[in-house]
Amino acid sequence: DAGVHSKAWYAATCDRKMAEDALYRSNKDGSFLIRKSSGQDSRQPYTLVVFYNRRVYNVPIRYIESTRQYALGREKSGEERFDSVAEIVENHQRTSLVLIDSQNNTKDSTKLKHIVRVS
């Protein structure tokens, strides 16, 4: 278990559009939530949705079968791995998360600051 189900930031029944709408409404840099990923893929079970600089980023959370850990985004060498999704959130409440905009080829970073609840 990824340690998500009892957490305030986990939006269990939320799809991508609902998540993005909720974050645009919050309109605060560092607003975030975690939702189930759209594709039913066990290797990418969740998505971290973050609002920063008037944009919403959907960051895939990967499950690494071999080590039973979680990591953010595409696989890269030297990536940070975590034992639960909750650890990813706790880590990025303290340290900045790099947000990559692949369309504009820009990088930003923010900490996870404001939990957004989807109503």
Q: Which key phrases capture this entry?
A:
SHC Adaptor Protein; 119 residues; alpha/beta; six-stranded mixed β-sheet; two-stranded antiparallel sheet; single chain; 2 helices
Give a short summary of the structure.
The protein is α/β, with parallel strands linked by helices. It has two helices and eight strands.
Assess the beta-strand content as a share of residues: 25-35%
Structural class, by secondary structure, is: alpha/beta
The CATH superfamily is known as: SH2 domain
CATH architecture annotation? 2-Layer Sandwich
What is the 3D form?
globular
Task: Give the biggest sheet.
Answer: 6 strands, mixed
Low-confidence stretches: none
Helix proportion:
10-25%
Strand tally is: 8
Tell me, rounded to a whole number, the average pLDDT. 93
Rg value: 13 Å
CATH topology: SHC Adaptor Protein
User: What is the CATH first-level class name?
Assistant: Alpha Beta
Query: In angstroms, what separates the terminal alpha carbons?
Result: 25 Å
Can you describe what's shown?
By secondary structure, the protein is of the alpha/beta class. It has a single domain, classed as 2-Layer Sandwich (SHC Adaptor Protein). Helix content is 18%, strand content 34%. The chain is built from two helices and eight strands. The strands form two sheets. Strands 1, 2, 3, 4, 5 and 8 form a six-stranded mixed sheet that branches. Strands 6-7 form a two-stranded antiparallel sheet. The protein is globular, with a radius of gyration of 13 Å.
